[in-house]
Amino acid sequence: MSEQETIPITPQTLEVDDELMSDIVDLIRSQSDNALRNILNDLFPEDIAHLLNRMEFEDAQYLFLQLPTEIAGKVLPELNDDLREQFLDWLSKKQITELVEEMPSDDATDIVAELSRDMAEEVLDELDEKDSSELHELLQYDESTAGGIMQKEVITVKKNDTVKRAIQAVRRAAREQNEQLYAIYVIDEKDLLVGSLPVANLILLPPSRRIYKVMDTDVIHVRTNVDQEEVAKIFKKYNIISLPVTDFGGHLVGRITIDDVVDVITEEASEDILRLGGVSEDEHISTAPLVALRRRLPWLYVNLATAFLASSVVNLFSNTIQSVVVLAALMPIVAGMGGNAATQTITVMVRGIALGEITDANTRKAFLKEIRIGLMNGVANGVLTGTVVGAFNHNPVLGLVICLAMIINMFIAGFAGTIVPLALKWMKIDPALASAVVVTTFTDVFGFASFLGLATLLLKYLLPS
Amino acid sequence: MSEQETIPITPQTLEVDDELMSDIVDLIRSQSDNALRNILNDLFPEDIAHLLNRMEFEDAQYLFLQLPTEIAGKVLPELNDDLREQFLDWLSKKQITELVEEMPSDDATDIVAELSRDMAEEVLDELDEKDSSELHELLQYDESTAGGIMQKEVITVKKNDTVKRAIQAVRRAAREQNEQLYAIYVIDEKDLLVGSLPVANLILLPPSRRIYKVMDTDVIHVRTNVDQEEVAKIFKKYNIISLPVTDFGGHLVGRITIDDVVDVITEEASEDILRLGGVSEDEHISTAPLVALRRRLPWLYVNLATAFLASSVVNLFSNTIQSVVVLAALMPIVAGMGGNAATQTITVMVRGIALGEITDANTRKAFLKEIRIGLMNGVANGVLTGTVVGAFNHNPVLGLVICLAMIINMFIAGFAGTIVPLALKWMKIDPALASAVVVTTFTDVFGFASFLGLATLLLKYLLPS
Does the complex come out with an ipTM higher than 0.85? Predict the structure, then answer.
């Protein structure tokens, strides 16, 4: 696919490519403010953020200052974490306050949460009372819960209101907020959430109709403390685009929209991938080397400890190795192939757990499946390896030893590859985080022990005649 | 978090838990149809699908037949792939046709695409002409492109129409289609896409206003052949909920909605995770053992070939190992730790490539970063390992050998861990698929070669005195 087809082409906007990028940098360096503003005018905030992310910091600062406050407020949340942090260190209290005022409450909360404690206090003091109290409320929720990702911008009507009244509420909201209008939420006398109605439906209804007669009473909703991963599952399962959030008493306190959930889904999937690879979930391409090292090194040290454990198993058999030195060259095959088979099993298990596919009912089935695959893999790999090794070394017993060891170790791979992620889940440890290191310790130790142990038992048939 | 908090609690619906599940199975087996229908009436189609997924097939068949056609048409696309396939084998042509008629065109296309060729032809013949020609059109697109995931249900108005006229179009669409109304799309005399307008905005506008005066002319759109992964990136980047699709001439041919894209995002993230783990992207917990084995085994054979390669490197040094047998126990530490460090690097690179974070500009930076981390990791792990090994074996030269070998191998890990995913990307091979096996071959070969090579050079200092 050519680059041209993948970039959205809109009738009146520019294509965001390397050419545009270098044009803009030229204009920045020649301080051609008018030309710059004309170009910025034709770009979406997301595209401006994309350009800023890729520029030298000085150029990015210059360009950011050319943006009208309204646009800058939309660009800031779209910047990558590192650049946004640098910008927040650089901008003044007044500038940050003006930007925060332009943002919907969920984005504003994220920005304030990233400020130093003192700066956050000062910015909150500068805001008008309504904004300030909304942000104070949102800041108190854990950022990975429904409360932490929701926004306060909600259109609410009473259940006895008319459709006409609801339309007025939508008009008001459209003037005051800069947010997508998806649904209006209906509350009763006690402010409890009792219904919802898509905004679009209002144009289909007679203006005098009472809302309680036309509202949808099956409102899927969540409490503020529900984990964001659960929130994402609800959006995915019910194909919804906005979800009301209630407090423990059932009062409507905010809403979550699909665009925030798309970010959560991407984030959670990345987290699993990175953890499975033994990397911190905060690491990006752009993370500084020393920061990345500090996060990766502890994980390597854990692996180093398990490597010493496996090594000590080999040491138990040094007499055998000294007698039949080819065992040293063959033993990594048994251990490594066990590790590869285990990685396959772990991957399927961890993904199944993350997607919620694992239930009590199918756990036993998954376990039996992986054990069967382990044995079959063991036979398929063991017979092939045993034949090659036996023929190459002119020693069928050596072939038999490696064949049996592979069958044993691939059985272990299936067994531990299933049990360990499940056990970690039961222990409330993320299976993506620790499964691989635990399971490959098993396959290393059992790989070396079974191969060298069998070789020791059958040593007299292996000695060069 | 207790189970209760995570399940959406709605005023009039039941909680979907194991108790409900066993109640329903009891009712199925006692053939209590009325009671069953009452319960089904209170459940969302997605929850019914969830229950069916977890039942014995005979129970699921019985329950499915209790559903009104309208609900059954919503349940079928939500079933997991295996159960849906079984259902499509079991249902008659007439039943399938009725269900397909209830579905939006994108879901209907997916179902027809899953039928046997003959059955698909027959079902398409049974449909009315409009539905049939829509499905014929949608079926011709590659299923992983914009055309393959779009639907034909679009509200279109001419740019000279009034707001009142547009409202009438929305009314008509609301009657005919069972779909979410997000936006209306505006076309000119030549049917070219020229603008869009959120449906909700119609209630804010005077009825006599012409659409071209109020429409948004910056319509982000894609062509039918754009890959679904690119489509997902556009949704994520611009925070949109629906995206019009045009043909090569710029004519509006359909739209994609956010709920379909959420599925794409989940699918693509799973694909990366599974491929990194050496598993087929189609594998699920529920995949039958023999099917899973057939897909996993070729991958293990590729790894087996590379394991033999690494083993042959060890064989070159058999004299050295025979003289200093402790080398056999230590060499897996060097190779394994290189592999662990490489996995960290690969994970960050593959994720960065998938998220589009890698650009020409930062590739060099990422490369230099990983090489620096590799060297620092090598020193940190090498010095620690060398000290322990040297002290434990009362041989500082042995400690030096393993220290140097680890530095060399972790440098290789950073080098190959960056270069290989990038090279695979340039060669249009998915980096998630092949990076790990190629890079760990490097770290195994260089790990054994550097450690045993250095040991051979310094052999006289290593021999037991």
Answer: no
